[in-house]
Specification:
Elements lengths: L1 E5 L7 H11 L4 E3 L8 E10 L2 E10 L4 E10 L6 H24 L14 H9 L4 H12 L3 H17 L10 E7 L1 E2 L11 E2 L4 H24 L4 E8 L7 H14 L8 E5 L8 H9 L4 E3 L7 H7 L5 H13 L5 E7 L6 H14 L3 E6 L7 H4 L9 H17 L3 E6 L10 E5 L6 H8 L3 E6 L3 E5 L6 E5 L4 H23 L4
Parallel strand pairs: 1-2, 1-3, 6-9, 6-16, 7-8, 9-10, 10-11, 11-12, 12-13
Antiparallel strand pairs: 3-4, 4-5, 13-15, 14-15, 17-18
Helix pairs in contact: 1-2, 3-4, 4-5, 6-7, 6-15, 7-8, 11-13
Length: about 500
């Protein structure tokens, strides 16, 4: 689909126009200049008069005698900064543009003009400001064109989060820790996480673990010296249970030695996502160090799907390892399902829900497949046939109905670029089994210190909320060559961030 935009020439508007175009079409070309083989021409104008800013959009189909029009205006408040005025321009422009595309395609975007990852942050902001829910909901629907259905979902999640973490808005002086282990048995076709195959790479694993222990010691020393408490710890990757039981044991021992007040950390999670990495010995290690939450991720209960996406475990192995974990005392298990995997439709997804019902994990995260730019699946799309938008939406509705019927409540959500059907990823849980770390990382209320290969740190200023990002390198070789330098750079940022605190 080639979309030519007339009347808008400033490059700063191209990105929001492209992102909204992406909601309706697969890999559209959105150009502010004349292009050949144009499918749609959209004339857009923005003008300010009598204290209001108005955008008008007129869509013409080049091969048909068809024209669609829309307009939208908002009051211009006095004293706006240049950045605030641009936001207002972008908002009215997006309203008119989205409306004509909805009218043309017949597709209603339930998230409206919102293309960001964390929509619930908007509702949290209103809650903190003391804005009544009805007023906040009205604002979300008017300002972003979000449907009542999605606003209701947002409110349900915010309510649950505040019940689970009543002091959510007061945790800026604490931190959470993400520890990245970049190894997996194999790499999945949809994955862009740091995930390097383990086979024959023990030397690289040993070097990485030495650097990881160093980072944990230095970060622990800084936290102790500055009297910084830890809210949650999350071991991710890759697959943290890819390393041996002995290596896991040493790693958790390091955590207890180096980190402050580990016994009072609210939650420690280990992603045991690949069932083929779980052994009785590793589960014993998890129990020994009081790991209270793990993930065992089927993604699908259709064997052909697992083979197609590069997961070498069997469906039976997922079920066996779940029961093994249960028998060995793991009483807070998360499982992931992915909607829209290759060659899967309503029938296959219903089968996955039926199998989930037999296990009843404490939490279930329902992902919608996202074509991540660097993944094998994106680079070879012709090999991977996925369900159409309507079927993907039906599968999401099935997940919503199933979770409601089994007393799971949504407690966090996030969205991604190139996500099928412009939908979302939603974490559901039984009562009091929510992942606190997932709430922390999504709502961005505190600093997350990333330790290890590919670990992303997100430094949140406790006073202003300003966010600074810092990423460790994704490949073990680069990490091993520079972990001391990366550690010191993060400590320097932390010193600047927390020096203002009493």
């Amino acid at each position: 689909m080639n979309i030519q935009i007339n009347g808008i020439h400033e490059e700063k508007f191209h990105r929001p126009l492209q992102l909204i175009g992406n909601l309706f079409f697969e890999e559209p070309t959105v150009s502010l200049e004349p292009i050949e083989d144009t499918d749609l021409i959209i004339d857009i104008s923005i003008k300010e008069e009598e204290g209001s800013l108005m955008a008008q959009a007129s869509l013409k189909v080049t091969k048909e005698e068809k024209e669609l029009n829309a307009s939208y205006s908002k009051e211009v408040q006095s004293g706006l900064t240049e950045k605030e005025y641009f936001r207002l321009q972008k908002n009215v422009l997006s309203h008119a543009y989205l409306t004509v595309l909805q009218d043309y395609t017949g597709i209603i975007q339930k998230w409206g003009i919102l293309t960001g990852m964390r929509p619930t942050k908007l509702l949290h902001k209103s809650t903190q400001a003391g804005i009544p829910p009805e007023e906040a909901h009205k604002s979300l629907m008017e300002n972003y064109m979000i449907t009542p259905e999605k606003v209701e979902l947002m409110q349900s999640i915010v309510d649950t989060q505040l019940a689970v973490v009543p002091d959510l808005y007061d945790l800026g002086n604490e931190v959470s820790i993400y520890i990245g282990i970049p190894f997996c048995p194999t790499k999945c076709a949809y994955c862009t996480f740091p995930a390097f195959a383990m086979q024959g790479k023990q030397g690289r694993v040993d070097s990485f673990l030495a650097g990881l222990h160093y980072e944990m010691r230095e970060m622990g020393k800084w936290m102790k010296e500055n009297e910084i408490r830890i809210t949650t710890v999350y071991y991710g990757g890759g697959t943290p249970t890819s390393i041996s039981a002995e290596e896991m044991d040493a790693l958790y021992e390091e955590m207890y030695k180096s980190f402050p007040d580990v016994e009072n950390i609210r939650e420690i999670t280990v992603e045991a996502g690949r069932p083929d990495t779980i052994t009785p010995e590793k589960l014993e290690v998890l129990k020994k160090w009081n790991i209270d939450r793990i993930s065992i991720n089927p993604q699908s209960y259709t064997q052909e799907t697992l083979k197609a996406i590069g997961r070498h475990h069997t469906v039976e192995e997922t079920i066996e390892k779940f029961h093994l974990a249960r028998e060995m005392g793991m009483n807070n298990i998360n499982m992931d399902l992915i909607i829209g995997l290759p060659n899967e439709g309503v029938e296959e997804f219903q089968h996955s829900l039926d199998e989930t019902e037999k296990l009843m994990p404490e939490s279930l995260t329902v992902h919608t497949l996202s074509f991540k730019r660097a993944s094998e699946m994106t680079q070879n799309k012709e090999k991977y046939k996925v369900a159409p938008r309507e079927e993907v939406q039906e599968m999401m509705s099935m997940a919503e109905k199933w979770t409601r019927g089994h007393d799971y409540k949504p407690y966090y959500l996030y969205r991604q670029k190139n996500i099928l059907g412009n939908l979302e990823n939603v974490g559901y849980s039984l009562a009091n089994q929510e992942s606190i770390y997932n709430i922390m990382i999504m709502e961005e209320v505190q600093t997350i210190i990333g330790i290890g290969c590919g670990a992303a740190s997100k430094f949140v200023d406790p006073e202003t909320g300003k966010i600074t990002h810092f990423n460790n390198p994704k490949d073990p070789k680069s990490y091993n060559e520079g972990f001391q330098d990366y550690t010191q750079k993060k400590i320097n940022i932390l010193n600047d961030l927390f020096k203002k605190q009493p």
